[in-house]
Design goal:
This protein is α/β, with parallel strands linked by helices. Helix content is about 25%, strand content about 20%. It has eleven helices and 24 strands. It has helices spanning about 20-30, 70, 90-100, 160-165, 195-205, 230-235, 245-260, 280-285, 370-385, 395-410, 425-440, and strands at about 10-15, 35-40, 110, 115-120, 130-135, 140-145, 145-150, 170, 185-190, 210-215, 220, 225, 230, 275-280, 290-295, 295-300, 305, 310-315, 315-320, 340, 340-345, 355-360, 365, 420. The chain has a five-stranded parallel beta sheet with strand order 3-2-1-7-22, with helices on one face. Strand 16 (about 295-300) and strand 17 (about 305) form a beta hairpin. Residues about 1-10 and about 455-465 have low confidence and may be disordered.
C-alpha cells in the first residue's frame, strides 16, 4: 500500500547555505516543505566565497573548480554561456547566489546564525521523528527533519611533526590566499592533492625555490585534452555498462598521453587507487624544474627539513596541504559520532539509529559534487514525502560495513579515503536502494532521476514549478 505525500506544513532545517545546502533547499521547497537554512556567515556559497566571513572557506585568490563547467552545473540551472570552461571562485559564488535567488531560497536563510546543537526533541519517536535546532543566540526551534550540509573541508588536519617542529613560517593550506606574499622565498608545500598542486604552481614562478612533498602517489589528470575538458573526452567511458577496469585504464592512458608517467616526475609508484588530482600546470612546472618533487619528510630541525631520500634543505615557509578533519561541532557524539574521519551512514546519508536526520555532501568524489548531491537529495526527498521506507537497522549496518570493506580493498590507506565515493557505482547503489525502498511501501517502482545524463551547453531554464 502506498503512502501519501507529506503536508506542506512539514518543517525541515538545513544546516549550511553552500552548494549542497542550497540544492537540498531547492528540492525540498519544490516538494512542498517549509524549509529554513542556517548559515554562520552572511553569504550563500560556502567555500566558494573568497574571504568568507564565516571563516570556513579555504578559497584562495587563483582558485578554479576541478570539474568542467557543464558537469558542475546543477541539472536544471546552467551557467551563463560566457562563463569560462573551468569557473573560478568568483564565478561559482555568483552562480550559487543566482541559484538561491532563482528558486526563492535566499529569504529562507538565517544568516549570521551559528547552530550549536542538533538533537532529538523530547517527543522524538521513530514513527514520528522530531528534532531541535539550537543556535548561538539561545533560540530553539523544532523540526520534523534536519539535513546537515555544513561540509567537511573547514577544520585543517595538522601533522604535529610539521606544525610543532618547523620554526619558520608555517600555515595549513586552508589559510593560504595570495601567492604574491611568497615571492623570493624558499617554500615547501606538503601534499599532492588539488590544493597543494595549485599552491605550488602559484608560488613557484616567483619563489626562490619550491619543493612539493608527495606523501602519497598521485594520479594527476589534466584539465584539458585535445582542447576540450578532460571529462568531455572521457565521457563515453562513464556509461554504466563500461567495466570499471576499462574506465580506469582509459583515464590512465589519456593522463599518460598528456602528462607521461607519474614516476618520471619523481613520484613513487603505487599499487592501490588514490583520489585523483586535477591540475593544468603542475606537471609543466616540474618539467621546467620550477618545482622539485620529494617523496617524504623524515625529520624537522628548525627551518631544515630532512627528506626521505637523505637530502636536507632549509626553507622560509612550510605550507601543509595535509587535508581536513571531519567534525560535527553541533551534534553530540552519542547522536552521531565521527569515526576515523568518517561517518557510519547508510548510503552516506542516513544514521541507522535515527529517522529524520540526513547528511548531504559528506563525501570525496571522482566527479562534480553538485551532480552527486542532486542524486542524494532526490533520494532523501522520497523518504520525506512518505513514498518509500528505509530498511532495518541491521540491513543498514551491513551495507555500511560492506562499503568500508570495499574502500579498504580498493584505495590506499588514508583518512581522506574514508568518505570516498566513485559516482558510477554510487549512483547505481542509489537507484538500487531506491527501488528496494519503493517495494517496501508497495508503490510503483519508478526512476526518480538519480545520476541522470549531464547535458552540455544547455541554456538556463526557468525555475521549475513546485510539485
Amino acid at each position: 500500500m502506498g503512502l501519501g505525500r507529506i503536508q506542506v506544513s512539514k518543517k525541515i532545517a538545513i544546516i549550511g547555505a553552500g552548494a549542497a545546502g542550497l540544492c537540498g533547499a531547492k528540492h525540498m521547497i519544490e516538494a512542498g516543505c517549509d524549509v529554513t537554512l542556517y548559515e554562520i556567515g552572511s553569504h550563500v556559497g560556502g567555500m566558494w566565497v573568497y574571504n568568507n566571513d564565516n571563516k570556513l572557506s579555504s578559497a584562495y585568490k587563483t582558485l578554479h573548480i576541478n570539474t568542467a563547467r557543464d558537469l558542475t552545473a546543477f541539472e536544471d540551472f546552467r551557467f551563463d554561456g560566457n562563463v569560462q570552461p573551468f569557473p573560478d571562485h568568483r564565478d561559482m559564488a555568483r552562480y550559487l547566489a543566482a541559484y538561491a535567488s532563482a528558486y526563492d531560497i535566499t529569504r529562507r536563510i538565517m544568516f549570521k546564525t551559528r547552530v550549536t546543537d542538533v538533537r532529538p526533541a523530547p517527543t522524538y519517536a521513530v514513527e514520528r521523528p522530531r528534532w531541535q535546532v539550537v543556535t548561538e543566540h539561545g533560540d530553539t526551534e523544532d523540526y520534523d527533519s534536519v539535513i546537515v550540509a555544513s561540509g567537511h573541508l573547514s577544520k585543517p588536519e595538522e601533522v604535529p611533526l610539521l606544525r610543532d617542529g618547523f620554526t619558520g613560517e608555517y600555515l595549513h593550506s586552508h589559510y593560504y590566499r595570495d601567492p604574491a606574499v611568497y615571492a623570493s622565498k624558499r617554500i615547501c608545500v606538503v601534499g599532492v592533492g588539488n590544493s597543494s598542486c595549485d599552491i605550488a604552481s602559484d608560488v613557484c614562478s616567483t619563489a626562490e625555490r619550491t619543493v612539493l612533498v608527495a606523501r602519497s602517489t598521485p594520479l594527476i589528470i589534466p584539465k584539458l585534452i585535445f582542447g576540450r575538458p578532460f571529462w568531455e573526452v572521457l565521457k563515453p567511458f562513464y556509461n554504466p555498462w563500461v567495466p570499471a577496469a576499462v574506465r580506469g585504464s582509459a583515464i590512465k592512458f589519456f593522463t599518460w598521453v598528456v602528462h607521461g608517467r607519474m614516476a618520471d616526475l619523481g613520484f613513487a609508484p603505487s599499487t592501490k587507487k588514490v583520489h585523483a588530482t586535477s591540475n593544468a600546470n603542475i606537471v609543466n612546472h616540474i618539467r621546467y624544474q620550477r618545482v622539485t618533487v620529494k617523496q617524504g619528510i623524515q625529520a624537522v630541525h628548525g627551518r631544515t627539513l630532512l627528506f626521505s631520500d637523505g637530502t636536507s634543505e632549509e626553507f622560509d615557509t612550510l605550507i601543509a596541504a595535509t587535508g581536513y578533519a571531519l567534525e560535527l561541532p553541533f551534534i553530540k557524539p552519542e547522536v552521531v559520532a565521527v569515526k576515523d574521519n568518517g561517518l557510519d551512514l547508510y548510503m552516506r546519508m542516513v544514521p541507522p539509529e535515527w529517522r529524520g536526520l540526513y547528511f548531504l555532501g559528506f563525501f570525496n568524489s571522482d566527479s562534480a559534487l553538485n551532480w552527486i548531491v542532486e542524486g542524494q537529495i532526490r533520494w532523501i526527498r522520497e523518504f520525506e514525502l512518505g513514498r518509500v521506507a528505509l530498511p532495518t537497522k541491521a540491513a543498514m549496518l551491513t551495507e555500511i560495513a560492506e562499503r568500508k570493506a570495499w574502500l579498504q580493498r580498493t584505495f590506499k590507506a588514508s583518512s581522506r579515503h574514508n568518505i570516498e565515493v566513485e559516482h558510477i557505482p554510487y549512483f547505481k547503489d542509489l537507484r538500487r536502494t531506491m527501488k528496494e525502498a519503493q517495494r517496501r511501501t508497495g508503490v510503483p517502482v519508478r526512476d526518480i532521476g538519480i545520476g541522470t545524463e549531464r547535458r552540455l551547453a544547455a541554456p538556463n531554464p526557468q525555475p521549475a514549478a513546485a510539485e
